[in-house]
Write a structure and sequence with these properties.
Layout (H helix, E strand, L loop, with lengths): L1 H40 L1 H15 L19 H19 L14 E2 L13 E3 L2 H8 L2 H4 L13 E2 L2 H15 L8 E4 L6 H14 L3 E5 L13 E3 L4 E3 L1 H14 L1 H4 L22 H8 L6 H17 L5 E5 L8 E5 L5 E3 L4 H13 L4 H6 L7 E6 L8 H8 L18 H10 L2 E4 L6 H13 L9 H10 L4 H12 L1
Parallel strand pairs: 1-2, 4-11, 4-12, 5-8, 8-11
Antiparallel strand pairs: 2-3, 6-7, 9-10
Helix pairs in contact: 6-7, 8-10, 8-11, 10-11, 11-12
Subcellular location: Mitochondrion
InterPro entries: AAA+_ATPase, P-loop_NTPase, Ribosomal_mS29
GO molecular function: structural constituent of ribosome
Length: about 475
């Protein structure tokens, strides 16, 4: 009985084990397939969840990359030696080429002096001395027109035919010959070098020992850039700051001569020297430079200096005026009624205009009525077309027969009658500066930038715009002017 029970239990357990193994096999297959299905359907979600978990759990370190960063360490000796050898080999191969020539050294320019203005030096390249460049560029009028105003003083200069003629004119003035008594006006197309020619005249005057009165930018006197006040005594509007700067420039350029000249005494005693006047022109200018000097004191010192320089004959006086149309044009200053003032209503331009009008008459009887006329010396002027509002005056100055013609805008030239009378009374001599450039002069132009590489000014939009203004907005005129300069 016990044995039979034991056999029944063994068969039952065997059956249970078979059933359980079958169930495990079935359940295992079902579980693996469901897991596979779950993984295949939820892979994107699992990846997103893993990414979120990574962000929450860790902070990713950022690496800052520097643009154009230098090498992190020194170059190895082997790399440096290799690059140096390659460079030396390349340079050696280029020098062994039959087409190789050693670069020519930069040409050395001769310094300009009074002896350079001779026919034998025509077409040669010169430069102004550093002393002359510094003396001319310190003019206070340059400071009113920007830092690049003095660039043309540092550029190489090609001596041309009209420069020689100008030198002969100044030499005659230094000798006191009457042929130079009438003022000289330089004419020519835009860009023909009139301002450079005036700089040559100023350098020649300094080298010849003459007293120099250099006014490089006359338009700065009428463009309403400084203070002004009306004076009943002078019957004009005084410009105290501009007058003070003008006297300072006059003294800095001619200190030796002004320290020896005695102020002129007028018979009527209205102006000029008096009992309280200092003994020299240098002392008069220094008194006018005092901080407590009144505007009338400054103007009286200016008139005393100009009258004395015009009357004396010990030193020749060379007056160089650029942008001379400023003396014959309406100004940008206004009176109490908001009316534009004319240039002859301003004291400083009126004084320079009196010198021009006095220089037109050179007999003794005429000089007595025009005290500002030079007894020994010359006045040299030039015009510019860089300011469109003064083109009408410039046209009358350069073309005296164009008084009844039309201006660049097609309208009749409108200029007050008194200005036209002054233009005729000055009796200008004229010297043309726009003759075509020769082949040798063009070759010298190519050498100039190599000799003075730091002197060339950049060609920017502002320079182009100024040339367009000078041409009156006429592109054909601008092109023709460029051709005339380069032909």
């Amino acid at each position: 009985m016990a044995a039979s029970c034991h056999r029944c239990l063994r068969s039952a357990s065997h059956t249970v084990s078979l059933v359980s193994s079958s169930l495990r096999q079935v359940l295992g297959e079902a579980t693996s397939s469901s897991v596979a299905r779950s993984f295949s359907t939820s892979a994107p979600a699992s990846a997103a969840a893993a990414k979120v978990a990574t962000k929450k759990g860790q902070t990713k370190k950022k690496v800052v990359l520097r643009k154009n960063a230098p090498a992190s360490g020194p170059r190895s000796a082997a790399t440096k030696k290799k690059s140096d050898s390659v460079t030396q080999a390349a340079s050696g191969l280029s020098k062994t080429s039959p087409f190789y020539h050693d670069p020519a050294p930069p040409p050395s320019l001769d310094t300009f002096d009074a002896g350079c203005l001779a026919n034998l030096n025509t077409g040669k390249l010169f430069k102004l001395s550093d002393e002359t460049t510094t003396a001319l560029s310190t003019s206070s009028l340059f400071a009113l027109r920007g830092k690049q105003s003095t660039d043309f003083l540092k550029r190489p200069i090609i001596l041309r035919k009209h420069h020689v003629q100008l030198g002969n004119f100044i030499a005659a003035a230094v000798r006191g010959e009457p042929t130079s008594s009438r003022p000289l006006l330089l004419t020519g197309a835009t860009g023909s070098g009139k301002s450079v020619t005036l700089a040559i005249a100023a350098a020649y005057a300094r080298d010849a020992g003459a007293i120099l009165l250099y006014v490089p930018q006359s338009l700065a006197m009428i463009n309403s850039s400084t203070s002004y006040v009306y004076s009943n005594t002078a019957q004009a509007y005084l410009q105290p700051q501009l007058t003070s700067d003008f006297l300072k420039d006059l003294l800095s350029q001619n200190r030796t001569a002004l320290g020896k000249l005695t102020p002129r005494v007028k018979a009527d005693g209205a102006s000029g020297a008096s009992s309280s006047t200092p003994s020299t022109l240098e002392a008069i200018i220094k008194r006018a430079q005092a901080p407590n000097a009144s505007p009338w004191t400054k103007h009286e010192a200016l008139e005393t200096c100009i009258l004395t320089l015009a009357e004396q004959t010990e030193y020749p006086v060379i007056v160089v005026i650029d942008e001379a149309e400023a003396l014959f044009s309406p100004s940008q200053y206004r009176d109490a009624d908001f009316r534009f003032l004319q240039s002859y209503e301003l004291a400083l331009p009126r004084t320079l205009l009196s010198m021009l009008l006095g220089a037109a008459k050179h007999t003794e009887s005429e000089l007595a009525t025009r005290p500002f006329g030079l007894r020994r010396g010359a006045i040299i002027c030039a015009t510019t077309a860089s300011q469109s509002q003064f083109i009408s005056t410039t046209k009358i100055l350069t073309e005296p027969t164009s008084l009844h013609q039309v201006g660049p805008s097609g309208r009749p030239i409108d200029l007050p009658r008194k200005h036209i009378q002054h233009l005729h009374a000055c009796e200008f001599q004229r010297l043309k500066c726009d003759e075509p450039i020769t082949l040798s002069e063009a070759a010298q132009l190519c050498i100039g930038p190599q000799a003075l590489p730091s002197s060339s000014a950049p060609l920017d939009d502002e320079a182009l715009l100024s040339k367009v203004i000078e041409s009156g907005g006429n592109t054909l005129r601008l092109l023709n002017s460029l051709k005339q300069t380069l032909m």
